[in-house]
Amino acid sequence: MWYNKYRKKILELDELRTKRKTLANASETTLRNMEKIQNESARVAEVAKNSENIIHNLNEEFESQTGLNKIDVAVLFIAICLQCSRIYFINKLTKTEKAGQGNKKEDKLHQLQNKILEKFDNGKKDTPCEYYAPLNQIITGRGVPYDAQAFLGEYQKLFKGANHRFSTLGHDPIVGLIFGTTNILTNTITCINKPLITTNHVVYDALLKNPKIGIPASTILALKNGVQRVDGDMASVVAALIKQIIHIGTDMFTPCGIQLPFANLILDKKTVEKLTKYIGTGDLVKFGTSFKIANFIDTIISVFHSLLFDETRYSSFDMYSIKTRKIIDYSYTIATGSNVIINAIRIYEGDEKAIKDIDYAGLLILLSRIFSDIDFQLKIKEEFILGNFNKMIRGTPLELEEIKLWESLGK
Fold first, then answer.
1. Tens of pLDDT, residues 148-176
2. Count of H helices and E strands in the chain?
3. Burial of 111 (0-12, 13-18, 19+ CB in 10 A)
4. What's the whole-model pTM score?
5. Cα 2 vs. chain centroid, distance in angstroms?
């Protein structure tokens, strides 16, 4: 009996010793965890105390990563050369020249016209008649009937001289696709004399040259006869349409130019003529072409520069893309900026034609990019600085030791 009591006391004593040891271990673990928490709090406090210097250093790191190095400057030089070439060749190709002999662009377009239209030649030599221009006349004739400026007798009230472009519907870049093509198919000229649209026959000599504006014709009959050619004489319709498009191209970059679409349907002839001196279809074509080429160059530079990305040197591709955007922006600033300055000096010296040589496409792209790229750069900069600062605040996981006090004591 006494043995059992003694054995029970010994077991109770061992249990107390085990619990005391468990408590001691738990206390030591708690102290170590508290020390880690204290150290982490001190670290966070130190980061907060030096936050101004940290943010300053992060800002400098951002500027360092997004600044241009030697390789970037080389890419920038390529971009500037491409943009300058775009401006030069666009202005060269769209330079205003007098119509007629000596106009190189016109000669080349006529050569292209002859090369295309000769494929439609069926060998027949038909004779023109009322509301009918045969295929051989459409193919071999250099000009178009609505370009006639000579009159037969009393029919001299339609227009005077070169302003026939602002009177005839055939010279409208959009409406002319219908009326100009119809005039070519029917040997007529359609003019707008508000509020009326009038059509006259155009008479040629025996050699199908020297066109003269003759007696009035019916606009409806001209259109009807033109449409009828679609059924059975599609070659003439296609040839006339090609000739119409090329003729607009030959007149586009001449002193008189080609009016804006629908202009003479809305405004009077004098107003259209004055307006076309400042902006015409040629200017829209020039702007659109230059704009597309500029965007194509931007794409080439962006792709080429992105291939040089080294992920070991930059925190992200977005950071690197800021450099790409800077290269493109600087190329416009230098190329377009110099173009604007040079032409501004020309205008100041009295050369009014210089206003047409300004790189409006590049200027518009530059202005739009300035705002979009500033927003992008500020967004990436904010993410970089605040993101890294937050990482410093968070630090690394504390990895506190687990305390299993109650589980041990409960055993």
1. 988 887 656 677 665 788 989 999 999 99
2. 14, 4
3. exposed
4. 0.79
5. 104
